[in-house]
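Subject: design request, 328 residues
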């Protein structure tokens, strides 16, 4: 029963079959590179937007219970590693994109929350969310999805703890430290308001990410059907000891979220790229994208920015190498 649910609900095998029959109806052979690429593109695009709509709507309702003002109150009363854990967990119900997380990070900082807690939130928010586990299950199965989320949360907690222990509060830009916290009254929402907020979140997020989804699926289709497996294996295969490092470096300049990067990871996985290398690539894209680092540089001073990048790079590399050793 679970295998059927995994195939038909999460992986949507029925949709892939439907896309194939549609192409065959128009006389396009699925055995050709063009037909296989079109099937990949149609199937992954529709699947991602179905999942995106359902997940963001659900996440929007959950997020309506945790507006930034209420989250500040929750985090403000807990310090130390417990605060870091809570900050990482609350990051799972916030925006999917690192750039969207930074304004909330600024709000937490001006509210006087511990620096380690705010960085645990900043690492977790783009990297790990409730949507991640469903999306990863749809592409790679339950085991890999759960491992990714657990390791991502652990990484966020450890990263925030290190920054907290180093006492770098003075490394926040001066204008941020001088900003006053604008405390506002949080109105209690009705369920009708929460559903409306969920729908608005779908429109907003989908409106932002759809180009990256199409680009990601397009790149995935090219990798899946046009780039020789031998080339992929040479560059990112298990026999290349630098594959994890290369995947991390390649992922950092890319600006995308989990929706845009998964089709690329799926195509690479089908070519035999080890899961640890893919995890490093996905974490690098979602956490160290160049636009988000540029935004963060306006908030923190160079020393703290360099420390954040260093912690993320080392953590992503260690996780990648560790995943590659697992018998998955």
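Subject: RE: design request

Done. Sequence follows.
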């Amino acid at each position: 029963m679970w295998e059927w649910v995994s195939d038909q609900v999460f992986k949507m095998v029925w949709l892939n079959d439907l896309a194939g029959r549609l192409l065959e109806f128009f006389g396009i052979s699925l055995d050709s590179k063009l037909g296989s690429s079109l099937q990949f593109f149609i199937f992954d695009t529709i699947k991602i937007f179905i999942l995106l709509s359902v997940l963001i709507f659900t996440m929007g309702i959950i997020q309506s219970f945790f507006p930034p003002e209420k989250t500040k109150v929750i985090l403000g009363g807990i310090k130390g590693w417990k605060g870091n854990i809570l900050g990482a967990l609350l990051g799972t119900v916030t925006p999917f994109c690192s750039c969207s997380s930074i304004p909330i990070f600024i709000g937490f900082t001006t509210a006087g929350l511990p620096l380690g807690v705010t960085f645990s939130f900043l690492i977790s928010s783009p990297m790990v969310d409730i949507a991640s586990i469903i999306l990863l299950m749809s592409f790679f199965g339950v085991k890999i999805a759960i491992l990714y989320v657990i390791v991502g949360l652990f990484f966020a907690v450890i990263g925030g703890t290190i920054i907290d222990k180093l006492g770098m509060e003075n490394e926040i830009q001066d204008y941020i430290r001088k900003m006053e916290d604008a405390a506002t009254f949080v109105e209690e929402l009705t369920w009708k308001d929460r559903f409306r907020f969920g729908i608005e979140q779908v429109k907003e997020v989908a409106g932002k990410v759809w180009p990256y989804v199409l680009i990601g699926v397009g790149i995935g289709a090219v990798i899946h059907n046009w780039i020789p497996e031998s080339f992929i294996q040479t560059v990112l295969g298990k026999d290349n000891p630098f594959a994890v490092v290369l995947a991390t470096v390649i992922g950092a300049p890319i600006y995308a979220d989990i929706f845009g990067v998964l089709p690329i990871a799926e195509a690479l996985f089908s070519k035999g790229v080890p899961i640890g290398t893919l995890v490093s690539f996905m974490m690098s894209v979602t956490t160290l994208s160049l636009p988000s680092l540029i935004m963060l540089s306006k908030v923190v001073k160079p020393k703290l920015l360099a420390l954040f990048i260093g912690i993320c790079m080392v953590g992503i590399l260690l996780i990648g190498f560790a995943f590659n050793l697992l018998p998955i």
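The chain has 17 helices and no strands.
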